[in-house]
Design goal:
This protein has 150 residues and is of the alpha/beta class. The chain contains two helices and eight strands, in the order E-E-E-H-E-E-E-H-E-E.
Length: 150
């Protein structure tokens, strides 16, 4: 699994002109799923993201986590995170999991994230034509791959 997490002051996701998720301070999480991904990847990533100290404390130092600030989150599926641009000018998405594999893992990721965070989070619509709006805070943007845990 690969994620791009962005610290945001606000974010929302709209599908077919209907807002399906909106939040204030927290994280916008773009999630890409590969065929080999499993529940171990979900557990590791959820804990890593929720406890990552990327929010400013009272001394304006990044020492606080999403959990410690009681922040919000929106999780959006994004198969393009597994694009291969090695050959030619058209990206290949062969490494991205097919919808029948990716959707259940996406839903499990959301459920595990909510359990670890202790509250509901927003989500996009799997496979939907989503419009994502966000106001970056910092900006702080981090890429994490569960297959590369260094």
């Amino acid at each position: 699994m690969r994620v791009v997490i962005q610290r945001v002051s606000e974010a929302s996701v709209t599908v077919d002109y209907k807002v399906c998720a909106v939040m204030r301070s927290g994280l916008l999480i773009l999630l890409g799923i590969e065929e080999e991904d499993n529940e171990e990847d979900i557990t590791w990533l959820c804990r890593k993201i929720i406890n990552m100290r990327i929010f400013n404390d009272e001394e304006d130092v990044m020492n606080d986590s999403l959990k410690s600030i009681d922040g919000d989150a929106i999780i959006v599926s994004q198969f393009t995170l597994h694009a291969s641009t090695k050959k030619g000018n058209r990206p290949s998405y062969i490494k991205a999991a097919k919808p029948e594999i990716a959707k259940p893992l996406y839903l499990k990721f959301i459920a595990e994230f909510e359990k670890e965070l202790g509250k509901d989070v927003g989500a996009g619509v799997f496979g939907g034509d989503m419009k994502v709006s966000l106001l970056n805070d910092g900006p702080v943007t981090i890429i994490i791959d569960s297959k590369n845990r260094n």
